[in-house]
Structures are given as structure tokens and as C-alpha cells.
Amino acid sequence: MVEVSGVELCTESFGERADPPILVIMGVGASMLWCDERFCRLLAEGGRFVIRYDHRDTGRSVTYEPGRPGYTGADLVADAAGLLEAYGLSAAHMVGVSAGGAFVQLLALDFPERVLSLVLIGTSPGTRGDRDLPAPTREFTRFVTTAKVDWSDAASVIEYLADYVRVLAGPVRAFDEAGARALVRRDIERARDFAAGQNHEAIDEAHSNRPLASIGVPTLVIHGTADPIFPIEHGRALVEEIPGARLLPLPGAGHGIERADWETIAAAIIQHTGGDGASEARMTALEQTSVAKGSFKGTTPDRLPKTS
Q1: pLDDT in tens, 181-218
Q2: Do the Cβ atoms of 69 and 49 come closer than 8 Å?
Q3: Strand pairing of 7-9 and 219-224?
Q4: Which of 261, 102, 252, 264 is nearest to 169 (CA)?
Q5: How far apart are CA 75 and CA 199, in angstroms?
Q6: How many domains, the chain?
Q7: Is the pLDDT of residue 71 over 90?
Q8: What sign does the CA torsion over 168, 29, 256, 75 have?
Q9: Domain enclosing residue 177, as ranges
Q10: How far apart are CA 308 and CA 97, in angstroms?
Q11: Which residues have C-beta within 8 Å of that of residue 239, sequence separation ≥ 6?
């Protein structure tokens, strides 16, 4: 437990403090559990010091009365910067997933001294702009507009979130029903107040007046080709707007970090944040495969050793 901006956040670290630091930031309503411990250990085994944490109103971190969040999206962004201070770090490589990807974009824009590099997973441009990007899939939209949940009842929340995870996984790959239910149940049982998780939907969004083109750190965009919230065009838009950014598509993957992609994503992040012989060779092979399929966009920036 660490104190950041006067509030208590629950964190967990993996690896050696002397190794290049990576801060993983999840999306709205998501505790640290949604970045699996085993995935974090893959990064640590690759020579990285990894930190994951519970946002406010998730997991073991500070909670607020349901429906009355005492913070904004900008506070969640500032929490990440403050968490680095709590760990005695001046800067870190930032891995943002879903809305966490928007948060780390804003960190790179407004707290550039805190960011060594970016890895953006299953996310969309985090700044305002006139972009013609596809909307979520009809199945996703149907679910979020028709699904019912009683936030005062743990069993109802578990059923709702398990169904939500199924939709997020997309229509291409087989869905691990048992694994999803186990994760959701663990998350609900661990939370200080699981009903407070809905507060993230009520907060004011964070934003920056600076364009994504002003981001000056190496950026890797990782995106599932079957993402139902942010179709892959959102990832391509990030690559178009952030100088030197590159895209690693995950064929058939939905939204988030799926177990089937752990090794691929970990290898890409390790190479992006400094690299070693094995991971660099793996990343090169991934890039060559994607180029052959016509799906890899962007080139490796000269600044690559500085970063997902």
C-alpha cells in the first residue's frame, strides 16, 4: 500500500528494482488482477521491474461512495505519476491497456519527464480530434445497452462481468469460460467495495490540449484484430499520429491482454524497453510475419532502446 496524492493505492511489484521499470496501467473499472500475475512475471523474467496497481475504486485501493466519485480522470492520470514517486522512480516505461492506454498518452503529453516509452494495448487516441474511426461492434453495443446488473449483489455482478468478458474476447477465438469466471469472482471477492467499481463510468474524462504528434518517446501499439470496443483502425490511427510509432497486430485477439498472447506481448515489450538477444530476435520475427501479411505499420524508431 502506498500513499499517492493523499489517497491509498494498492500496488504489487515483480523483478529487481535495478532493472528497467515498467508501470502497467489498466482501464476503467479494472483492478491490477486484469494484468495477470503470470504475465507480469514473464516481463520480470525478461529483466524488467514491473509494477501493477489497483485504480481508485478497484481492488484494495481507496474507495468512494458508489455514484459519488471524489476524483476525475485527470486524478487517475496523476495517480500514475505519483505512484512512480512512491517507488522512488523518476520515470518508467508505461504500458497502458484500454482506457489505461489513453491515460499513458496523457502522461506522455503532460508529464513527459515521467515517461521513457509507451506501449498502447487495445486502445484509441486519448486526445480530442476529428477522426473518422469505427464504432464498437453491434454485439458489444447490444450488450452494454441491454445487460442488467444489480451492483449491490455480488452474484449479479459476477454474472454480468463474466458475460462482459465474453463479449470483450471477440468472436474469433474460443472463449475460456471457466478462467474468466474464476478471475471475475476473485476480483469481486478481493475488492474493498465491488459496487464502487461503477464510479469510473461517472468521472469527468481527462484530456490534454497538446496533440499526439508532440509525443516524443518510442511508442509500440499492440492491437487485437477482433477488438470489439476499438476496432483495429483505432490502433492504426495512433500509429499515424504518434511520430515513429509502430503497430503489432494480434490476429484474432479481442480486447485486453489475452493469455494466448502473453508470450508474444511480453517479448515485444521486453524488446521495446531495452531488448536482449532472444527477445529482439523474437520481435524481429514477429515484425517480419506481420509485414508479410501486410498488417505491420510503421518502422522501428532509432530511439527504441528507451521504452509497454
Answers
A1: 999 999 999 999 999 988 998 898 888 889 999 999 99
A2: no
A3: unpaired
A4: 252
A5: 13
A6: 2
A7: yes
A8: positive
A9: 138-192
A10: 9
A11: 221, 245, 246, 247, 297, 298
Q: What is the pLDDT of residues 17-68, one digit of tens each?
A: 999 999 999 998 999 999 999 999 999 999 999 999 999 999 999 999 999 9
Is the same domain home to 92 and 147? no
Helical residues (DSSP H) of the chain, grouped into ranges = 37-45, 73-86, 99-110, 138-146, 154-168, 177-190, 233-241, 262-272, 277-292
Q: State the sign of the Cα–Cα–Cα–Cα dihedral 164, 29, 59, 14.
A: positive
232 and 298: one domain? Answer: yes
For residue 142, the one-letter residue type is R
Q: DSSP string spanning 206-270?
A: P--SS-GGG--S-EEEEEETT-SSS-THHHHHHHHHSTT-EEEEETT--SS--GGGHHHHHHHHH
Residues 169 and 290 in one domain: no
List CB contacts of 72: < 8 A, sequence separation 6 or more.
203, 204, 206
How does pLDDT run across 117-167, given as a tens digit for each residue? 999 999 999 998 889 999 999 999 999 999 999 999 999 999 999 999 999
